[in-house]
Amino acid sequence: MDEAWAEHSRACDEPTLSEENGIRYLHFGTEWVQGAMRVSRPSELVLAYTQQMMAWLLFLEPRKGDEVAILGLGAGSLLRYVLKSTPAGVTTVEWNPAVTAICRMYFRLPANPRSDIVHCDAGLWVQRSEHFGRYMALMVDLYDAQAQGPVRDSLEFYQGCRRALADTGGVMTVNLFGDHASFAPNLARIREAFGGRVLELPEIDAGNRVVLAFNGPPLDIAVGDFLQRAGHVESAYGLPARRWARALLAQLSPSRDIP
User: Fold this and answer.
1) Angle CA 8–186–230, to nearest 5
2) For residue 254, what is the DSSP state?
């Protein structure tokens, strides 16, 4: 881990809490929201962008023995949701143990044999060969206290993310900031790392823009089957998958298949 970055992050990224209208929020010492949990329904995905981070379900159906990775714990929303809604194992990479501790105390982080939380710099984690080809889905949400752009966004990082995905077919979802200067270079690096196999979901929340990138063989899905799959995801997982599917299909020209 870069020591200067680590020291800056330790000084600025101390986790803090707020709560309003039954929703508990995680912050890193600023007003920026880093995660949220509805106290009465902790496994619900409160923020719209966290729902979009699950858009890989449009393409993959997790089964027992499959593995998913989350880079950036936040308030544990994605971890709680995946454990409750799927049978997959989940590895979560979070560099700051204080975030994990506050999630255990205040965000009902589940103790589950399918969950493994690793305290590590995600930029180093994706370069380790033991992760290559291992994960069906990789959800990347890496922000500091200012929440303006990802803290890990190099071409090398995104190439490592691709290597971590299963060669038989894997999907990465990345939370970017659509109206920030970091968006265009991040999108360009993701496109380069994934050979252009990238789709974007519409911007929501406070500028969040979720991008999907694909590894493995090209997908061969008829439009009707894709919309049927979206209907299944919407009913089975409680996510607005039909809206996502329509937004993704709108990006494709008649001559362009789903990546």
Assistant:
1) 115
2) T
Instruction: Name the more confident of 110 and 57.
Output: 57
Which residue reads 């949990």 in tokens? 37
The residue among 239, 169, 149 whose CA lies nearest residue 201 is: 239
Q: How long is the chain?
A: 259
Q: Provide the Cα torsion 101, 157, 246, 226; round to 10°.
A: -100
Q: How far apart are CA 145 and CA 34, in angstroms?
A: 8
**Residue 53 · residue 75 · CB < 8 Å:** no
Task: Supply 57's token pair.
Answer: 């379900």
Q: In one letter, which amino acid is 186? A: N
- The answer to whether the beta carbons of residues 177 and 205 sit under 8 Å apart is no
**Which amino acid is present at 44?**
E
Structure tokens at 131: 């992760």
**What tokens does 206 get?**
């406070």
| Tens-digit pLDDT profile for residues 175-209 | 998 777 889 999 999 999 999 999 999 888 668 89
Confidence of residue 44 (pLDDT cuts 50, 70, 90): very high
Residue 130 tokens read as 């033991």
CA distance to 31, 146, 199, 207, per residue, from 13 (Å): 12, 9, 31, 21
Contact 45, 39 (CB under 8 A): no
Contacts of 236 (CB under 8 A, 6+ apart): none
- H/E stretch holding 100: helix 97-106
Nearest to 91 by CA among 55, 124, 49, 119: 119
Instruction: Quote the CA–CA distance of 13 and 17 in Å, as a whole number.
Output: 12
**Class of the domain covering 3-239:** alpha beta
